[in-house]
Amino acid sequence: MLTPHSHDSAARTDTALESSARGIRVLGLSFAVLVVTAAAQAVVVAMSGSVALLGDTLHNFADALTAVPLAVAFWLGRRAATRRFTYGYGKAEDLAGLVIVIVVAASAVLAGYQAVERLIAPQEVHAVGWVAAAGLIGFAGNEWVARYRLRVGREIGSAALVADGLHARTDGFTSLAVLAGAGGSALGFPIADPIVGLLITFAICLVLRDAAREVYHRLMDAVDPALLDHAERVLAATPGVLRAGTVRIRWVGHVVRAEVDIVVDHHLTLIQAHAVAVEAEHRLIHEVPRLRAATVHADPDGPSDADHHAPLSDHREPSTT
After folding, report:
1. Global pTM?
2. In what residue span(s) does the Cation efflux protein cytoplasmic domain sit (predicted)?
């Protein structure tokens, strides 16, 4: 009753490894696309002096660089658990997400500084047509990367990869904003370029807020309460389970682990109670998305005057609400 029960652990490990491998493939390809996109934009920045395009280029380079810590995290996540890191290395993804948030914040500060400086001392933007073309290139590259990262990130349950995808999507829309700056400059309003640069900075800050919130939730082991509700329904429907007790679920990288208490008939033998616990874990693994392992603790429901946890009364944590 107190021992974790496993269910096809080799298959679950293979699935987790394949998820990490997919994440690494996504990052490698998107890194290449964004580096080419940013390099093309950098050439136009040197030709034109557009501060709006500079902000967009810096953001694209930052987005490309965030693939590096995330790829390292996916690689670490494939390593087997050890006696020191008993849950494995999946939390490296959350640390990579923190690095992504810091990089995005740094790109916002730099882009905002350049925009304010140019707003104070406006300069003429040259090669306006090339600036507009670079904005379109930035949008196309970032939107492709965003769709790719978001789709795979949601499929494998990686909050860090989803945050990176949101980052790329905002880069795409800020690239379109460069067109407005180029249009204003072409019409004889050089101040339009730094104003668009400030708008881009604001957009980066919005993405920063969403990405930081997502990463914070993972670092604090937060889960969607609906996931707990679903797990409780699965347990309640398991034959032999009288009711579900405490249910805890936490993310480890892009998989989840659970610790649950169930109440069973106190007349059951140890073997029968163990069978109920195994069936409960079996159902959880099959029906709760991305659940890799569960520890199931079975409590007897009686006799009515018995307190089976009396020695632990001063040490029990409060139940989840």
Report:
1. 0.68
2. 226-300
